[in-house]
Amino acid sequence: KYHEEMAKRKKLHNIVQETKGNIRVFCRCRPLSKVETSSGFKCVVDFDGANDGDIGIMNGGTTKKTFKFDRVYTPKDDQAEVYADASPLVTSVLDGYNVCIFAYGQTGTGKTFTMEGTERNRGVNYRTLEELFKIAEERKDTVTYNISVSVLEVYNEQIRDLLATSPSSKKLEIKQAGEGSHHVPGIVEAKVEDINEVWDVLQTGSNSRAVGSNNVNEHSSRSHCMLCIMVRAKNLINGDCTRSKLWLVDLAGSERLAKTDAQGDRLKEAQNINRSLSALGDVISALASRSSHIPYRNSKLTHLLQDSLGGDSKALMFVQISPSDNDASETLSSLNFASRVRGIELGPAKKQVDTAELQKFKQMLERSKQEVKLKD
Ligand code: ADP
Ligand code: MG
Question: ipTM of this model?
């Protein structure tokens, strides 16, 4: 059993580490809730092939549709297990790669549970920072790391800084500061020194998400919550300097508009959400067809993710699903979308060299060599 598990892990590690690879897609199904059980809803998801990445869904009682992913989690798989699989990708940000991880799916399927988690059952966001600090500590004699985080929300195509202590009077916009370097001038970049500071920062972000909205759940299902971890690394042995970032994104609910009776402001929100989710779909299609123009700028979401989605970077999508027959049509539509995503081949990932910093660092090394010579 142990060897089987290790072989499985190794296989997965190779899939995840392959530099020339697809966008990885992990599928996670939440348990049937108490309410669903007591209302008589049934599980329509088949996990028999879960170990091989296969998942089936009963479509209208008789026919079964199956899908293949890089990993399938049953409702019993816990947070630690899920994180262990994402970990190799996460840690490659320390080696200078841009990475993007996002959770996609209908509202109520566990996107926030997977990414944020709860204090007792922490999710990918916290575990990521925990591991980054652990590795940074292990490497401290050879590499100096500088880690900071920003937490943003995109709601109605507007960016809100969830770490800002007072609301900004100016509209936050995305600017390009050089090739592969988009940023939002004026947002808080909280420098985090160790893991003890992280939970508070993440909670601040999470708490301000609902501020000003009268329905917390509705607000979170209609906005994208985006955590950006920025890493600067200086290798003290070979002089390498990199500057990379990792986006961890809890997307708005993917449910189709028809199911919600949207009117007025509500309709505008829904259209904007659909706009950015469909813009994400368009970016993914363009990447898949190796189009020369990738339409990142059609939404705030894709514009923000531009440096970390496609091209030189590594990406992972969690497709979150409900097991209930009541949600089967949304589940099918999510799985179809996720299958298309999985088919995309990205080029080889590339390290994000920090040229300016590298130059300074090389000069400094040169100077200290000269000084040593002078002393001799
Ligand atoms: P979403 O963010 O997609 O709307 P949530 O993360 O809020 O969904 O999850 C909906 C509910 O289901 C929450 O009460 C959450 O705790 C629960 N849940 C989701 N995934 C799991 C899981 N894998 N195991 C146990 N409970 C889960
Ligand atoms: Mg949520």
Answer: 0.99
Provide φ and ψ at 306, rounded to 5°. Answer: -45, -45
pTM of the shown model: 0.88
- Check if 108 has its Cβ closer than 6 Å to any atom of ligand 1: yes
Tokens 């190799």 label which residue? Answer: 88
- Name the phi and psi angles at 262, rounded to 5: -90, 135
229 and 147 in contact (C-beta within 8 Å)? yes
Nearest to 255 by CA among 108, 124, 57: 108
* Residue 40 annotated as binding site: no
Q: Are 331 and 64 in contact (CB under 8 A)?
A: no
In order of 154, 163, 219, the CA distances from 167 in angstroms are 14, 10, 18
CB proximity list for 275: less than 8 A, separation 6 or greater = 157, 298, 299
pLDDT tens for residues 4-19? 777 766 666 655 555 4
pLDDT in tens, 30-80: 999 999 999 999 999 999 999 999 999 997 767 889 999 999 999 999 999
Tell me the C-alpha distance between 373 and 376, whole Å: 5
- Alpha-carbon distance of 69 to 141, in angstroms, equals 39
Residues 6+ apart with CB under 8 A from 177: 183
Q: Is 60 annotated as a binding residue?
A: no
Give me ligand 2 centre to Cα 355, in Å. 38
**Average confidence score pLDDT of the chain:** 86
Q: Using a 6 Å cutoff on CB, does residue 323 contact ligand 1?
A: no
